[in-house]
Protein backbone atom coordinates (compact mmCIF):
# COMPACT_ATOMS: atom_id res chain seq x y z
CA UNK A 1 0.00 0.00 0.00
CA UNK A 2 1.48 3.36 1.08
CA UNK A 3 4.54 4.32 3.09
CA UNK A 4 3.49 6.84 5.74
CA UNK A 5 5.71 9.00 7.92
CA UNK A 6 3.74 9.26 11.15
CA UNK A 7 4.69 11.93 13.71
CA UNK A 8 3.33 11.04 17.12
CA UNK A 9 3.61 11.82 20.80
CA UNK A 10 5.14 8.61 22.19
CA UNK A 11 2.75 6.91 24.59
CA UNK A 12 -0.38 8.61 23.22
CA UNK A 13 -3.21 6.06 23.21
CA UNK A 14 -4.96 7.69 20.25
CA UNK A 15 -1.77 7.65 18.18
CA UNK A 16 -1.46 3.94 18.98
CA UNK A 17 -5.01 3.30 17.70
CA UNK A 18 -4.38 5.43 14.61
CA UNK A 19 -1.18 3.55 13.78
CA UNK A 20 -2.97 0.22 14.20
CA UNK A 21 -5.69 1.28 11.72
CA UNK A 22 -3.07 2.32 9.17
CA UNK A 23 -1.12 -0.92 9.58
CA UNK A 24 -4.30 -3.03 9.42
CA UNK A 25 -5.03 -1.32 6.10
CA UNK A 26 -1.64 -2.48 4.83
CA UNK A 27 0.32 0.75 5.10
CA UNK A 28 3.93 0.74 6.28
CA UNK A 29 4.82 3.33 8.89
CA UNK A 30 7.96 5.23 9.69
CA UNK A 31 7.13 6.51 13.18
CA UNK A 32 8.79 9.66 14.46
CA UNK A 33 8.61 11.62 17.70
CA UNK A 34 6.68 14.83 17.06
CA UNK A 35 8.11 16.40 20.22
CA UNK A 36 11.79 15.98 19.33
CA UNK A 37 11.65 16.42 15.55
CA UNK A 38 13.76 19.41 14.41
CA UNK A 39 10.88 21.47 12.98
CA UNK A 40 11.21 24.63 10.94
CA UNK A 41 8.37 27.05 10.30
CA UNK A 42 8.25 26.21 6.59
CA UNK A 43 8.26 22.46 7.17
CA UNK A 44 5.56 22.59 9.85
CA UNK A 45 3.32 24.90 7.81
CA UNK A 46 3.29 22.33 4.99
CA UNK A 47 1.18 19.99 7.16
CA UNK A 48 -1.58 22.53 7.83
CA UNK A 49 -2.61 23.41 4.28
CA UNK A 50 -5.64 25.68 4.16
CA UNK A 51 -6.90 24.79 7.63
CA UNK A 52 -7.72 27.68 9.98
CA UNK A 53 -4.95 28.38 12.52
CA UNK A 54 -7.10 27.14 15.43
CA UNK A 55 -7.18 23.65 13.81
CA UNK A 56 -3.38 23.44 13.97
CA UNK A 57 -3.43 23.11 17.76
CA UNK A 58 -3.64 20.15 20.10
CA UNK A 59 -6.78 20.95 22.10
CA UNK A 60 -5.53 18.73 24.96
CA UNK A 61 -2.25 20.63 25.39
CA UNK A 62 -2.09 22.00 28.95
CA UNK A 63 -1.56 25.62 27.85
CA UNK A 64 -4.52 25.40 25.44
CA UNK A 65 -6.81 23.76 28.00
CA UNK A 66 -5.91 26.35 30.66
CA UNK A 67 -6.67 29.20 28.26
CA UNK A 68 -3.11 30.51 28.40
CA UNK A 69 -2.87 29.88 24.64
CA UNK A 70 -5.97 30.82 22.65
CA UNK A 71 -5.62 29.31 19.16
CA UNK A 72 -8.53 31.40 17.89
CA UNK A 73 -6.71 34.64 18.68
CA UNK A 74 -3.48 33.88 16.82
CA UNK A 75 -2.22 34.55 13.34
CA UNK A 76 -0.12 31.97 11.48
CA UNK A 77 3.23 33.53 12.43
CA UNK A 78 2.45 33.65 16.14
CA UNK A 79 1.03 30.12 16.09
CA UNK A 80 4.10 28.65 14.39
CA UNK A 81 6.43 30.48 16.78
CA UNK A 82 4.58 28.98 19.76
CA UNK A 83 4.65 25.48 18.24
CA UNK A 84 8.36 25.64 17.44
CA UNK A 85 9.03 26.62 21.05
CA UNK A 86 6.61 24.02 22.46
CA UNK A 87 5.82 21.11 20.09
CA UNK A 88 3.22 19.73 22.53
CA UNK A 89 0.94 22.44 21.11
CA UNK A 90 0.96 20.79 17.67
CA UNK A 91 -2.16 18.81 16.79
CA UNK A 92 -1.32 15.22 16.08
CA UNK A 93 -0.64 13.12 14.30
CA UNK A 94 1.19 14.76 11.47
CA UNK A 95 1.38 12.41 8.48
CA UNK A 96 3.22 12.44 5.21
CA UNK A 97 2.61 10.09 2.29
CA UNK A 98 3.10 10.26 -1.47
CA UNK A 99 4.31 13.86 -1.25
CA UNK A 100 1.20 15.07 0.62
CA UNK A 101 0.98 16.08 4.28
CA UNK A 102 -1.86 16.26 6.79
CA UNK A 103 -2.63 17.08 10.40
CA UNK A 104 -5.05 15.21 12.64
CA UNK A 105 -6.77 11.90 12.09
CA UNK A 106 -10.30 11.96 10.77
CA UNK A 107 -10.87 8.38 9.58
CA UNK A 108 -13.00 9.45 6.60
CA UNK A 109 -10.37 11.96 5.45
CA UNK A 110 -7.55 9.44 5.88
CA UNK A 111 -9.57 6.81 4.02
CA UNK A 112 -10.16 9.21 1.11
CA UNK A 113 -6.47 10.14 1.07
CA UNK A 114 -4.63 6.80 1.38
CA UNK A 115 -7.32 4.28 2.28
CA UNK A 116 -8.27 2.54 5.51
CA UNK A 117 -10.30 -0.26 4.00
CA UNK A 118 -13.82 -1.50 4.63
CA UNK A 119 -13.48 -1.25 8.41
CA UNK A 120 -13.09 2.54 8.48
CA UNK A 121 -14.37 3.49 11.94
CA UNK A 122 -16.78 6.35 12.42
CA UNK A 123 -15.32 7.44 15.76
CA UNK A 124 -13.32 10.32 17.19
CA UNK A 125 -9.69 9.19 17.19
CA UNK A 126 -8.28 12.55 18.24
CA UNK A 127 -9.93 13.53 21.52
CA UNK A 128 -7.95 12.26 24.47
CA UNK A 129 -10.09 9.64 26.19
CA UNK A 130 -8.84 10.69 29.64
CA UNK A 131 -9.97 14.25 28.95
CA UNK A 132 -13.34 13.06 27.63
CA UNK A 133 -13.83 10.88 30.72
CA UNK A 134 -13.01 13.81 33.03
CA UNK A 135 -15.44 16.08 31.19
CA UNK A 136 -18.18 13.44 31.40
CA UNK A 137 -17.58 12.95 35.13
CA UNK A 138 -17.75 16.71 35.74
CA UNK A 139 -20.98 16.93 33.76
CA UNK A 140 -22.53 14.26 35.97
CA UNK A 141 -21.69 16.12 39.18
Description:
The chain is α+β, with helices and mostly antiparallel strands and 141 residues long. It has a single domain, classed as Glutaredoxin. It has six helices and four strands. The chain has helices at residues 13-24, 41-48, 62-65, 76-85, 107-113, 129-140, and strands spanning 3-8, 28-33, 94-97, 100-103. Strands 2-1-3-4 form a four-stranded mixed sheet. The protein is globular.
Quick structural gist:
The chain has helices at residues 13-24, 41-48, 62-65, 76-85, 107-113, 129-140; strands spanning 3-8, 28-33, 94-97, 100-103. It is an alpha+beta fold and 141 residues long. The protein is globular.
List the keywords.
141 residues, alpha+beta, Glutaredoxin, four-stranded mixed sheet, 6 helices, 4 strands, 38% helix, 14% strand, globular, disordered C terminus
Return the string of H and E elements. EHEHHHEEHH
Per CATH, the architecture is: 3-Layer(aba) Sandwich
Number of alpha- plus pi-helical segments: 6
- Mean of residue pLDDT? 90
Distance between the termini: 48 Å
Major sheet size, sense and barrel closure? 4 strands, mixed
β-strand number: 4
Q: Within the CATH hierarchy, at the fold level, what is the topology?
A: Glutaredoxin
CATH superfamily placement:
Glutaredoxin
Low-pLDDT sequence parts: 133-139
**Secondary-structure-derived class:** alpha+beta
What is the CATH domain class? Alpha Beta
Overall domain count:
1
Percentage of residues in strands: 5-15%
The strands making up the biggest β-sheet line up spatially as 2-1-3-4
Percent range for helical residues? 25-40%
Principal-axis shape:
globular
- The Cα radius of gyration reads 15 Å
Amino acid sequence: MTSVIFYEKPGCANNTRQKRLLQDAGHSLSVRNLLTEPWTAERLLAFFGERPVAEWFNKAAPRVKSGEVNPHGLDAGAAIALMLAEPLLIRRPLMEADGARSVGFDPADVDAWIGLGPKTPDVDLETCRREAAKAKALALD
